[in-house]
């Protein structure tokens, strides 16, 4: 692989990610949803009863950051934490009525941003892009797992 091309691809992915995060932060500010919290809300909405560990792995965010974010989301009444009956060390996460009442609006904002990002691409190009990003994601995930295990010292 040409190092120059791989660096350009990596920079492009990072730039796209930052732009989307910036847009979402502005859109969600009026709902008092802070930086990056929308990712937690969508995953909890899509997976009611998920525990913190699974959420942390799903989002590739360390457990401490997840715990802090969940505390804020619970304080702002977007989620509720329920002690697991199967494992008293685990907290299960559920959307509240407040989140349920605004979720469709949030989802529409997300979809609009996604569609805007893919403007001008054919269905086939979108499909190919998704396939390629999955491959890149798998490679990055393997590196992330290795880095995570080395950092457990």
CATH architecture heading of the largest domain: Orthogonal Bundle
Helix fraction by DSSP (H/I, runs of at least 4): 55-70%
**DSSP strand tally:** 3
Within the CATH hierarchy, at the fold level, what is the topology of the largest domain? Arc Repressor Mutant, subunit A
Beta-strand content estimate: 5-15%
Widest β-sheet, arrangement of strands: 1-3-2
> CATH first level of the largest domain: which class?
Mainly Alpha
What coarse outline follows from CA principal-axis ratios?
globular
pLDDT < 50 runs, ≥5 residues: none
Q: What's the alpha carbon Rg, rounded to whole Å? A: 18 Å
Q: Tell me the number of helical segments per DSSP (H or I, 4 or more residues long).
A: 6
What letter string, H or E per element, gives the SSE order?
HHEHHEEHH
List the helices and strands and how they pair.
Elements: H1 3-29, H2 37-46, E1 50-51, H3 52-59, H4 63-75, E2 79-83, E3 91-95, H5 97-117, H6 123-150
Brief summary of the model shown:
The protein is 70% helix and 8% strand. It is mainly alpha-helical. The protein folds into two domains: 3-117, Winged helix-like DNA-binding domain superfamily/Winged helix DNA-binding domain (Arc Repressor Mutant, subunit A, Orthogonal Bundle), CATH 1.10.10; 122-153.
Verbal overview:
The structure is a single chain. This protein has a 3-stranded antiparallel sheet. By secondary structure, it is mainly alpha-helical. The longest helix has 28 residues, at 123-150. The mean pLDDT is 93. The protein is 70% helix and 8% strand. It starts with a helix and ends with a helix. It has 2 domains: 3-117, Winged helix-like DNA-binding domain superfamily/Winged helix DNA-binding domain (Arc Repressor Mutant, subunit A), CATH 1.10.10; 122-153.
């Amino acid at each position: 692989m040409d190092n120059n091309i791989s660096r350009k691809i990596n920079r492009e992915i990072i730039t796209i990610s930052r732009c989307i995060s910036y847009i979402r932060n502005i859109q969600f500010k009026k709902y008092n949803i802070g930086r990056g919290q929308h990712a937690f809300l969508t995953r909890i909405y899509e997976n009611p009863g998920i525990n913190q560990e699974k959420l942390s792995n799903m989002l590739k965010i360390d457990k401490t950051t997840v715990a802090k974010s969940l505390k804020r989301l619970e304080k702002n009444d977007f989620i509720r934490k329920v002690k697991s009956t199967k494992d008293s060390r685990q907290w299960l996460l559920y959307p509240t009525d407040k989140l349920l009442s605004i979720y469709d609006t949030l989802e529409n904002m997300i979809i609009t941003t996604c569609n805007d990002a893919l403007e001008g691409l054919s269905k086939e190009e979108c499909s190919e892009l998704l396939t390629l990003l999955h491959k890149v994601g798998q490679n990055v995930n393997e590196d992330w797992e290795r880095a995570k295990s080395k950092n457990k010292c």
